[in-house]
Structure formats: C-alpha cells, structure tokens
Amino acid sequence: MKNRTFFWFILPSLITMLLFIALPIVSVAVQSLHIEHEAVMVEVENCGPFGCKQELQVDVEETAKLKEERPLGQFNGLGTYTNRNHLAFSEIGLAWRSSTGLVDFMSKALNLPFYRALAFTLTYTFVVTPLVIIFGFMIALGVNTLPKRIKGPTIFISLLPMIVTPLIGSLILFWMIDANGILGATLQRIFDDPNLSLKASPALTWIMLMVYGVWHSAPFAFIVFYAGLQTVPADTMEAAMIDGASRWERTRYVVLPHLMPLTVFISLIQLMDNFRVFEPIVSFSAQASATSLSWIIYNDLVGTESQFFGSAGATSVLTIIGVSILLIPVLIRTWRDFNQKVV
Amino acid sequence: MSDIVHRRSPVLNIIIWGLVLVWIVAAGFPFLWTLWGSFKVQGDFFSKADWTNAVYGVRTQIETGGAFTGKGYYGAWVTKEFWIAALNTSIVVVSVVIISLTLGTLGGYALARSGKKYAFYLLMLALVFRAMPHITLVSGYLLPFFEWNLWGHLPTAIIVMVAINQPFTLWMLHSFFLNIPKDLDESAMVDGCTRFQAFRHVIVPVMWPGVVTTGLFSFLLAYNDFTVTATLLSQANQTMVPKIASFLGTTQTEGNVMFAVAAVVSATAPLFVLILFFQRQIVSGLTAGAVKG
Fold first, then answer.
1. Cα separation values, A78 from A12, A22, A327, B38, Å
2. Model pLDDT, residue B13
3. B150-172 residue pLDDT tens
4. Which residues lie closer than 8 Å to A147 by C-beta, 6 or more apart?
C-alpha cells in the first residue's frame, strides 16, 4: 500500500488516539508539576468597639481572578511527588529511622495513602492473576468433558460474570454478602457470630475483592483455554496413549505444553487489567480498608469541595510508570511474534 | 477412538461434574437471586432472620398483598428517572459503536495491507495506549474540558470513549483483515479501482463477520464503562452505570435500596440478551487474539 493512501486511511483513527490518549498523558505530566493556587490574603483593618486590629482575610475576588488567569495553578516542580500523599520520602525516611523492625516499618509505611493503595493494587494483581489461570484451566478441562448438548448453556452461564458491567457485577455480590444478604446472614449463622461482617474487617474486605476479581476474570481464561483444548493435536495424544501414559501424564506432558503460549497470553493481559482495579472498590464501598491506585486518582478528581488536579496528575504519572513496567514483557513478546512471522 | 480417550473412572467423573456444577452455581446463581429478589421488598431481599423469606416473599405479602411487587422498578424508572439514563446510555453506546467501527475498519484495513515497518510500530503504539488505565487519561481531560466548556456533554464522552476504544478495535480488525485474501482487493485494483474503491466494493461486502464481532466488544466497552461516564458527564446527562453508582449514596439513606436493585437488573437485561444471540461471536472474538497470535 502506498504511503499516501495508508496515511489517509489511518488518519481519523490516529487523530482520535493522539488527541485523547497521547495528549492527556502529556497533560497529566504537566498537571503533576503544578499545584492549586493558595488563597490570596489581604490585610484588612477591622475596627470594633475595642479599637482597631489588623486581620488577614481571604480575598475571594482576587483568588477567583488568579484561578481564571492561570487555571493550571502554580508551578510546584516535583513537590507533589514527594509530599505525604505520594512518595512521601521524608515520612518513609522517618519511619525507617524510628521503627523497631521491618514489620513496624511496613505498618508505618502502609499508613501513607500512596503505599496503602500500591500495596493493595500489587497484592490484588499478583493474587488474582494466577488464581484466574488455575480456575480457568480447571473449568475448561471440566467443561470439555461435558456432553455436547449441555456445553452451550454452560458456556452461556460462564460468560455472565465477565460480560456484566464490573460495577454491577460487584454490586450483585456485595448485596449477597451484606450482613442481611443471603451469604452474609448465612455465614453469621454458621459461625454463630451476629457481629461477623465482611465489610468491617480489612482482611475480609481484601479477600472479598479478590474473590470478585477471580469470579469476574476466570471466564476469560476459561474461554481461551477451552478454545486451546479443541486444538490439542490428536496424533500426539494417541502416541502418548500407545506409550502407556496415564490420564494425568497426558494432561501434564501433552495438554499443558500445548496451552503454554495461551497461559502467557492470559497472564500478560490479566496483569495489565488487574492493575487497574477500581470499580469493585466503589461498589463494595471498601475505601476504608482497601484503596487502589486508580481509586485514589478518582477520589482526587471527584472531590466534593475541590478537585486536586496536581495530586491526581502525580498519582497518574506514577501509575503509568507501573503499567509500563508490566507492559515490557507484552511488547517483547509481540515484537518477537511479529519478527517470526516476517521470517 | 474418541470413546477410549473419553472413558474415565467414575470417581474422576464425579469430581469433574462436581467442579463444573460448583462453577455454574457460582457464575449463575447471583444473577438469578438478584433477579428474583428485585421483585420483593427490602425486608425480604435483605432478610437477616431467614433467607427463605426472599424465596416466598413473606414481608412482600404483608406489605403489598402479593408475592411479587414491581415497586422497585417503578421507583427506579419513574421516581428516580432511570429512563433518562437508559436513553443516554443508548445514545452513547450506539454512537460509540458506529464511530469506532467506521474509524477502526479504515485504520485496521490500512494496517493489515501496508506491510511497512511503520504499520507495525503503530500497532505497538496502540498496544501501549490500550494498557493505559482509563482513569489516568481522564485526569488529563478534566482540566482542559472544564476550561473549554466541553465538560458534561454526551458528545464529549462519546468521542473520548471512541478514542479509548480505538487501540483494541484497530488490533482486532487488523487481524480480521489479515484473514481476507490480499488477491481480492488487489485484483480489483488491477481492474482499475483506486484503493478506496477496492475497499468499498470488494472488502466491505465480505468484512461483516469481523465487524460484528468487533462491534460487540465496542458495545461492551461503552456500555460497561464507569470511569469515563462517571467523571465526564454532568448529573443531567448521566448514563445508567454512574446513575446506579449515585443511587448507592442516596437510596441507602432513604431506605430505597430496592430501587438500585431494580436498576441493576434492568441494566443487566440487555447484556443477557446480547450473550444469548451473540455467544458464538463473543467466544470467537475472545480467542481470536490468543489462538492466532
């Protein structure tokens, strides 16, 4: 295809991506270097019955004007990155010097909002991803042995948790584990503890969020593995059987190696997607016990009194750095695939 | 042959069937339960005393005189004006699907036929763009959109979602176009068509299966989105998902949780129908990237 023709075909698509994906990333980086204006103060003479006093007052008009003129705020350099709400270097340093042991240090660090969110995001990502693969694989093996007639309906039901809106799916689970919901109330009866609440305990909240994550993503792994199982080479399978391989050995030495590339594919996609975990925290109202990087950005943006663009920008940049690290293996793999195809 | 492969010991059979059964219940029961419960009153759906209340509708009988009630639905759709949100959602979703498919087919076709190195770099760039968490992009939009008075309108959210959708659409359609033989459009060009004419008259008639599959995923992205619609739309223009999220704050205090439950069921219904009719396309779309690539 000629370069000119290519250019005209791709142009509309490219423009939207540059305007609404590339530019915002730049805009986020610029925002992160700025901070909201401080209120302009004026000295007013306040005269009362007991004489006159000089007082400082917020000059509302001037503040609004300043905001109007420079909506981005004032330049702050890397100040936002190092403050208490983000990387918190000084607090971390202080905690390191003053803490008695590693556990003490960790608990102090996890009181800082950014590290708290980072800890949950990473735990979620690296717990949910392997579980999704394991469950997806087991379901695929199971469904593959079902009679043909009930495979269709089984796949239909299996798709539901993945297709349904994440916010809605997590709400449905949340209502069931509510203290008065079917699962919550039943658990209370089983453990005979009327105060048992999955919402009140941070540990249980983390577990619930991860259970949701596995429930939501396992169908994806299942479908991909299931499709892979249809293409297991029959010759190799027969040869293994003639050599006397047991069912377990056939699964271990024929099926698993065949599905390995799919496993890599699923885990790369899942790592990137799980790193964004956000909606379940909103649905579960879990922010007291668990926050994620995406959630703290959202929280800065929808603040009731004012929005903290600088703070949201800094967290966004840090999140993008995190995603980029997870992205490197994906890029390497795509690169290699492409070059293999060309050769 | 296949009989021998599939002969298993009864114990293994029981384990496998048990596992599949557990999964089916885990995947399907929450939806069934919520659908059933949405026709009850709050005292039944959230019954501390006995979960069977929700099955028989004990409190529903007392409060409304029947075993089922449509009160939640009336409250959500009429009192809380959920119909406006539903209307907004349909506008947004239809526009996003049409625009992103139009842009995506043109771009995807070009990427599939180019064969140049830069086409590959563009695909890699699209992959990087796909990985960006949506909320980080949104935090880049808000300030400029406020300044230029673009914030809060449906078209803004639509074009943003089209853009966020593009990387995925490009990748998917690119791989579909790779499967359409090159000879088809090239022979048309030998006969004197320009590239665009060849695309229009030869490729467009045969591309629909791929476009339908990609369209389904664009639909899902737009329909399921919370991040963009919750932050970029004003209260009046809210779509269903952020509307449900805002129900959570208000209805919990007013004791109208059932409104939210009814709204959730209403918003799930179209997805249900979608899977019912397009199950095959969804499955093939999910596996397209994995099995081929």
1. 36, 22, 25, 51
2. 84
3. 999 999 999 999 999 999 999 99
4. none
Q: Which residue has the higher pLDDT, A53 or A206?
A: A206
For B5-17, the pLDDT digits (tens) are 456 778 888 888 8
State the helix-helix crossing angle for B154-179 and B117-131, rounded to 10 degrees: 130
Q: Round to whole Å and give the CA distance between B252 and A180.
A: 13
Interface of A with B in 153-192 (CB under 8 A): 154-161, 163-168, 171-173, 175-176, 178-182, 185-186
- Cβ contact B143–A309 (<8 Å): yes
- Contact flag B267-A26 (C-beta cutoff 8 Å): no
Distance between CA atoms of A275 and B48, rounded to whole angstroms? 36
- The whole-number pLDDT of residue A170 equals 93
Question: Which part of chain A has CATH 1.10.3720.10?
Answer: 113-342
Q: Is B120 on the interface with A (CB under 8 A)?
A: yes
Query: What is the SS3 assignment for A101?
Result: coil
Tell me the C-alpha distance between B273 and B171, whole Å: 26
Indicate which of B132, B142, B214, B279 best probes the interface with A, i.e. most A CBs within 10 Å of its own CB. Answer: B132
Average pLDDT over residues A243-255: 88
Domains of chain B with bracketed CATH? 2-69 (no CATH), 76-292 (1.10.3720.10)
Q: From CA A296, how far away is CA A154, in angstroms rounded?
A: 38
